[in-house]
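Long-time lurker, first post.

We've been arguing in lab meeting about whether magnesium ion would sit comfortably in this protein at all. Half the group thinks yes, half thinks no, and nobody has a model to point at. So I'm putting the question to the forum: if I give you the sequence and the SMILES, can you give me back a predicted structure of the complex? Inputs are below. Any interpretation is welcome too.
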Amino acid sequence: MSDSRVATAGEGRVSSLPIRAEDDLLAARHAVRAATLEAGFGLVAQTKLVTAASELVRNCYVHGGGGKLVIEHLVPPPRAGLRLTISDQGPGIGDLEAALTDGYSTGAGLGHGLGGARRLVDEFHLDTSPERGTTVVITRWVN
Amino acid sequence: MSASEIPILRLGTVLLAGLGSELDDKTAVLFADELSRQVADTGARAVVLDITKLDVIDSFAARILVEIATMARLLGARVVLAGMRYPVAITLVELGLGLPGVLTALSVEHALKKLSTPESPRERPGGSRVR
Ligand SMILES: Nc1ncnc2c1ncn2[C@@H]1O[C@H](COP(=O)(O)OP(=O)(O)OP(=O)(O)O)[C@@H](O)[C@H]1O
Ligand SMILES: [Mg+2]
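Top reply:
Settle the argument with this. Predicted structure of the protein with magnesium ion, as tokens:
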């Protein structure tokens, strides 16, 4: 994770990781795991957020042609949590409603990644278009 | 050590493989190939995958595990996933991935015990043969 940058921005720390190669998927997972530990997540919440991140980072790499992951520590008040932003400049998601449905995949996947990731977090925002690519913002609170 | 760097141990007619805390995509695919080859070569009757250490199973890893179980079944062996951590189980349920056709056990010990008793019809995925 030598090329991850760490910046201090106002209230919460922000770090950014590139998603350009297959190894970056693993690095991203490690970084999210470390952030959940630091933020004080319980074991189940840790696993859910790392898994959601894994799905979205892989989508970014496989379907979006790569991009980046930004990890943001949200600090109290009122609540502590983590916000992850996964973005790419890829082709965008053609049929968003279908993409969020379990079992829909334009590739060889099981098609549970996007819908599953949404269920694993507290907040889920998705912006996609052929011009802007795809950006997913997920948030999970510590408690 | 196998090509995938996941050790595969032979205990009589059972192959026992211990996965690490991480299953990255490349390792998973190599491991699936390696394991199928070993099942075919040794004529193993069962495969126990020790996933006690594995702390994330995402949809990619889940797909590989189901594929491993299917391949092994086609080669005449049962696969038991042993020792899944409870946060991983909870997460898989939320992903909507119940790992159809894959036998599970609480631990490697339970798995080996399970394998020494005849298969009950309920846990027979896709009509594999009792032996
Ligand atoms: N970042 C992205 N850019 C473009 N298309 C995307 C992106 N993320 C998802 N998609 C589209 O949405 C579909 C559903 O995504 P989802 O993650 O649910 O399934 P999958 O990646 O195909 O399979 P898996 O179950 O292995 O994740 C994808 O097949 C793809 O067409
Ligand atoms: Mg996906």
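For your lab meeting: The beta strands of chain B are 8-11, 14-18, 46-50, 78-82, 103-105. The longest strand of chain B covers residues 14-18. Whichever side wins, do check it experimentally.
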